[in-house]
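Quick start: read one record
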Amino acid sequence: MFVETQQRYLIGRVILAVLQLEPVATGPGATIMQRIVLLLLLLLTGSLCSMACQADAPSCATDTTLLQASTSTSAQVAGSSGEHLSLYDAYPYYDPRFEAPPSPDMYLLTGNTVEVIATCDNYAYVRYQGSKLISAGWVEKARLHATGAPHARPSDTVAQVCAAAANIINRDGSGFSNLPYLPLAATPDGMQDKISQAANGDDGNIDGLARIKIDGHAMKVFPIEDGGSCPSDYLQIWPDDLSGLVTRTTADNTFADGQRLVQVLGHPLVLQVEYGSGNEGTFSLESLSKDGQRNTLCTATQIYTPRPRDLSGSANPICHAVVANQTTAIPVQAAANKTALLPKEEIGTFELSGTSQADLRNEGKPLDVGLMRFHYDSGGGCGSTDDATFPVILNAHGVADLTDNANKQLIKAITGVSQLNGATLTSPSGGRLITYAGHIYFVTYAEPLNDGNTSNKGLTGVVELTPTGSQHVCSFQPYQFKVEPTPGLAKQIMSW
């Protein structure tokens, strides 16, 4: 999928460029028909592919068996004192014509000692043993100086793999989406029919193929989505020569179950998640046997942190003050009228949970305000629940009029959408108003708050409202994932 998607994107760019050529570029008086003829000529001669496909990632970048090598070579990072060497969880391919270079996931320093597991084009996959954790990833191989001959690769225990996964998952609050997916090569021609015939008519969408080793044997694994409004993912395992289906995995939960291939320290693993869980709940990392059995190695559980980490890097003192509980909560009274005036197109439940008087937009003008709670349950697809909390301005009758432009702007500032409509929100589920240093702020939370709650549990951000808009001044990571090895497996050695 990685290669195919990149090729389709690049070919599309070439087609667009040809269709937008100035007449002089395709000859005097060129017409759209002449440009179409030019495209046909490019396709027939193979020039279009040579123009677009030349930027494909090297084939070695989609061969995970390289990361499963049983030998390694010790090397040292070369460079000037203190110089950084960028390390990437996934192979750092990008097309400089259309993309910016990827940001490194971490870095090594000149003088660090690493184990070189594999090389691919201009990069090397290395394993670095830190003082507390083991890390692995791709670095520029030109910066490495070999210090010895190839030898048996250092082994990893299940506990070390779980710890490395925790380090990746908790890096920036993105959760399991941080784990590097296995790169997928293009699906061979005719494979869709073979997969369907071999598995009693399965007609799901093939994402591509992963080349890995299972129990020491080279295998090809196809991640497949079975379609439908709430799709499930599963895996089909084939021998390297694609001579016939070996087995397919089964979903633990036939409703909204997902199986995705990731790698940690070079070990291919199955990430078992449930659609709709986002960064919440639990998920597991599992090893895969040749017969399709999955063995749970690590289980990740979300835990809220008492002092959320500031991800915004903001120097604004409000960020520290909120975490340190050095702000003052604006008192809120029970709302006499909990209903709201809604636009006709709005769906879901709206309830005014409380009212107060505050200079909401920091313009020197106290207003009658309230906190509005929104809730929506959707039965479509895999099902979803949306909750949002946002401040509103009350009209002269003490009613929250959501058709008013001022309140529409508040909704957009806090939730990210102009009208809720049961949409998937980028919004906080909970929130409260506070004051600090003469300014009023709206503090956001990952879950709905009980009235009077002033704790930091689930704290996600701080928004300052102004007469002309809003500013998200702080962004917090409200939770981390505790990743633990399955009891009895912590010291088990991972095989290659």
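The CA atoms of residues 19 and 35 lie 6 Å apart.
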